[in-house]
């Protein structure tokens, strides 16, 4: 949009007067933010209406991304950038003595997600709008987002995230789009006048689902899509529907808080209620919208695609069946045909403990009609498959097994597409984990390697590097990330390498200042900034990183004058509140940090900064300053990873195992621009097959490992008598589930390779440049375009800008 500084200032002052009855100079940054947010929303409202109208008039096929998590972070700067008014607003504010950065401080992170899965959903929302693709999100408006993390005595402490407290300028409550969702009670099928069996509900609880819409603004293209998040309310009109205080509380709990677990299946009732609540509300509103257009329900797959992001929304399958059977009165066959055409599903994990399986009794109690439909899907599936390929495979793939509903099976059977999120992950799905399904439906399986919203992860968060890119290769990369490749021509250009290095230095200094100010840790920007930022999980092996740090420390203690490349190890990681082992690792990292950071013998050659409350905003500060990207999960465990992509885009060199998307990063940058170490997936599987991994033997025979592990139990590292023992036992006594000791020496070598390369400034500069230049292929723009073409069968709409 076009906007002048003068006009902006006028609009901004007017907003402040109207909204808060306050003058610019008397307002706080909270008020500046509230006014600016609502003004920006007004700026894009015309485009919103226009996009909405266009979809209706052109009868555009639209896709709906169902996800129990969205993790957008802050939206102000992103919306300003995408509207093309970032500089005008920044200048306008400045002329009123306001720094945009101060206004941004007042915006809370919208953290309705745990980690990669939720962030991916938000990257897709940004990219879809920017590619003019008709894609909308559907999820839950949690009153409380992911907990805030603090460290007390080195332990993680969780605090509630009351992100809505100060008001949310981005959302619009759509009262007239509320729908009812039924849960509980019992069902009887009774014939209607024409003999159709119609379900009758007895004692069901009727919940009111209210949508709150947040708009997804495309990058300089006038497209605005919608993220619809549902909040529960108690209906006021139903007679006899008086609820006790306890019952009210029970209802309100449904959208009260985000489950903070990112990797374990936790079969609690409330979670199942959350899942059904947003699935039912979302599908009802989609079908209502579709039917208003006057089209026949049979044509639904021509106009609607529904995506199931991981299994949490898998009840989309039976819920759409319910709507088609009970409300549209279609036959089972017709309804099933439509459902499979509409639905598609993404798997995000191979870890057995993360796979959802609900006890049938619980499903029957909470969603009795849905349970009936699942039973019928299962019955027909078993009959078909047994007849065609035999009972064994039918029994292994059926939905209901051992009194549990297997949600992944439901999602696969009820969808026309199942995809993994990186090549290796999709291959393992096909060949190992979901092999039986692959035999049944080979045409349904495909890969969609993850991607990231490169506007946020480069243009927004790394203005310094963005400026260097503009000067060097022009500005096309801002719209077309593939154009980053133009940078490759400058790989030997010393001037360009120097500018990139200067941008990195600038960002490192900023991060160092932040770390000093917030956590009183002194770090030098001459040191390598080695970064591992992701949820804390044993398979991600933050512990491997820590063991190496302890080794470096012990080496330096033994020989304080030894020449060692200075390093700062930066961590950001939340542990699920109930994940004790992960919390133990946090405590150990913090205690090693306290020990190392204050030891004069170390002379600042080694520093550890474990920054609390890792979230999107903190990621935006850390990533531009990173030199090294730690992607060290045990091969075969990380489905894809996405911080690996964000870090390479910002010129960090990856130190990685051959896991998830690391493999594709290696292919993109070339072996000489990445450092690979550790077991391969095949080797890991071989250990499993032969059952011959022996961690104790490694501990006993390898003096370095022996010395490092002993430091956890002999008092070398203070204040961890319990935790140190737990770590030691997990590795030695319980045979090191994630082969940390097996990969240790190779990892140390990898770290040595990194240090040596860093000292060769030109070599290092070229590695950084090659990473930036080849990051375009991990743009989520490309990823969503592949989803659009191969899975959703939707097309971009025409745009003017
Ligand atoms: O999804 C992650 C994977 O671990 C990553 O490898 C992958 O890159 C991303 C995106 O595809 N999975 C999650 O983040 N999972 C969760 O956050 C989650 C949340 C609730 C319940 C189960 C898992």
Automatic annotation (TrEMBL):
Pfam families: Phosphorylase. One of its GO terms (biological process) is glycogen catabolic process. The modification N6-(pyridoxal phosphate)lysine is found at residue 646. GO terms for molecular function: glycogen phosphorylase activity; pyridoxal phosphate binding. It catalyses: [(1->4)-alpha-D-glucosyl](n) + phosphate = [(1->4)-alpha-D-glucosyl](n-1) + alpha-D-glucose 1-phosphate. Keywords: Allosteric enzyme, Carbohydrate metabolism, Glycosyltransferase, Pyridoxal phosphate, Transferase. The keyword Transferase applies. Its cofactor is pyridoxal 5'-phosphate. GO terms for cellular component: cytoplasm. It comes from the Bacteria. Its EC number is 2.4.1.1. The keyword Transport does not apply. Phosphorylase is an important allosteric enzyme in carbohydrate metabolism. Enzymes from different sources differ in their regulatory mechanisms and in their natural substrates. However, all known phosphorylases share catalytic and structural properties. Allosteric enzyme that catalyzes the rate-limiting step in glycogen catabolism, the phosphorolytic cleavage of glycogen to produce glucose-1-phosphate, and plays a central role in maintaining cellular and organismal glucose homeostasis. Belongs to the glycogen phosphorylase family. This is Alpha-1,4 glucan phosphorylase. It comes from Enterococcus canis. The lineage of its organism: Bacteria, Bacillati, Bacillota, Bacilli, Lactobacillales.
């Amino acid at each position: 949009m076009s906007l002048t500084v003068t006009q902006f200032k006028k609009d901004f002052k007017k907003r402040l007067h109207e909204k808060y009855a306050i003058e610019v100079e008397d307002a706080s940054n909270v008020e500046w933010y509230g006014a600016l947010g609502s003004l920006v929303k007004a700026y894009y409202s015309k485009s919103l209406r226009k996009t909405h109208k266009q979809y209706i008039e052109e009868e555009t096929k639209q896709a709906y991304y169902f996800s129990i998590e969205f993790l957008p972070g802050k939206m102000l700067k992103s919306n300003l950038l995408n509207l093309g008014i970032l500089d005008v607003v920044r200048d306008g504010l400045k002329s009123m003595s306001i720094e945009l950065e101060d206004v941004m401080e007042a915006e809370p992170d919208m953290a309705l997600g745990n980690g990669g899965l939720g962030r991916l959903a938000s990257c897709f929302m940004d990219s879809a709008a920017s590619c003019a693709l008709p894609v909308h999100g559907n999820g839950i408006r949690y009153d409380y987002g992911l907990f805030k993390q603090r460290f007390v005595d080195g332990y993680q402490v969780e605090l509630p995230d009351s992100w809505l407290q100060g008001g949310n300028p981005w959302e619009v409550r759509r009262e007239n789009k509320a729908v009812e969702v039924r849960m509980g009670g019992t069902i009887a099928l009774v014939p209607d006048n024409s003999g159709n069996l119609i379900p009758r509900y007895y004692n069901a609880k009727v919940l009111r689902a209210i949508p709150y819409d947040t708009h997804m603004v495309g990058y300089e293209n006038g497209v605005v899509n919608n993220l619809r998040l549902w909040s529960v309310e108690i209906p006021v009109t139903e007679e006899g529907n008086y609820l006790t205080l306890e019952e009210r509380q029970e209802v309100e709990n449904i959208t009260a808080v985000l489950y903070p677990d990112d990797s374990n299946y936790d079969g609690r009732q409330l979670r199942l209620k959350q899942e059904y609540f947003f699935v039912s509300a979302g599908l009802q509103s989609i079908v209502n919208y579709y039917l208003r257009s006057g089209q026949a329900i049979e044509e639904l797959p021509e106009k609607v695609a529904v995506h199931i992001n991981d299994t949490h929304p898998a009840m989309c399958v039976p819920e759409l069946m319910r709507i088609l059977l009970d409300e549209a009165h279609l036959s089972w066959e017709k309804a099933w045909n439509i459902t499979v055409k509409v639905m598609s599903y993404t798997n995000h994990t191979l870890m057995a403990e993360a796979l959802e399986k609900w006890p049938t009794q619980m499903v029957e109690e909470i969603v009795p009609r849905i349970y009936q439909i699942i039973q019928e899907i299962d019955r027909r599936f078993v009959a078909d498959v047994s007849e065609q390929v035999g009972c064994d495979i039918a029994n292994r793939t059926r939905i209901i097994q051992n009194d549990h509903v297997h949600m992944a099976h439901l999602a696969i059977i009820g969808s026309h597409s199942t995809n993994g999120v990186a090549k290796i992950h999709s291959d393992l799905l096909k060949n190992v984990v979901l092999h039986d399904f692959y035999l049944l439906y080979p045409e349904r399986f495909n890969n969609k390697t993850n991607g990231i919203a490169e506007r946020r992860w480069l243009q927004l968060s790394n203005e310094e590097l963005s400026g260097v890119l503009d000067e060097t290769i022009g500005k096309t990369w801002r719209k077309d990330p593939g154009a980053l490749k133009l940078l490759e021509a400058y790989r030997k250009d010393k001037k360009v390498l120097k500018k990139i290095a200067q941008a990195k230095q600038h960002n490192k200094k900023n991060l160092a200042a932040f770390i000093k100010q917030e956590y009183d840790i002194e770090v030098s920007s001459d040191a390598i900034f080695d970064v591992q930022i992701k949820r804390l999980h044993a398979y991600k092996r933050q512990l491997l990183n820590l063991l190496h740090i302890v080794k470096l420390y012990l080496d330096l203690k033994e020989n304080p004058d030894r020449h060692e490349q200075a390093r700062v190890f930066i961590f950001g990681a939340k542990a699920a509140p109930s994940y004790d082992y992960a919390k133990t690792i946090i405590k150990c990292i913090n205690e090693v940090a306290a020990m190392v950071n204050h030891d004069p013998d170390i002379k600042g050659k080694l520093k550890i900064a474990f920054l609390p409350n890792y979230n999107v905003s903190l990621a935006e500060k850390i990533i531009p300053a990173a030199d090294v990207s730690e992607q060290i999960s045990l091969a075969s465990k990380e489905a894809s990873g996405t911080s690996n992509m964000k870090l390479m885009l910002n010129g960090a060199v990856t130190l990685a195992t051959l896991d998830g998307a690391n493999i594709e990063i290696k292919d993109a940058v070339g072996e000489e621009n990445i450092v690979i170490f550790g077991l391969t997936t095949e080797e890991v599987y071989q250990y499993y097959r032969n059952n011959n991994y022996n961690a104790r033997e490694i501990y006993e025979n390898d003096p370095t490992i022996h010395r490092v592990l002993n430091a956890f139990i002999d008092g070398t590292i203070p204040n961890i008598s319990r935790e140190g023992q737990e770590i030691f036992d997990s590795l030695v006594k319980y045979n090191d589930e994630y082969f940390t000791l097996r990969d240790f020496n190779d990892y140390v070598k990898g770290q040595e390779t990194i240090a040596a390369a860093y000292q060769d400034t030109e070599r290092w500069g070229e590695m950084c440049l090659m990473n930036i230049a080849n990051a375009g292929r991990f743009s989520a723009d490309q990823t969503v375009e592949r989803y659009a073409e191969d899975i959703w069968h939707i097309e971009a709409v025409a745009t003017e800008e």
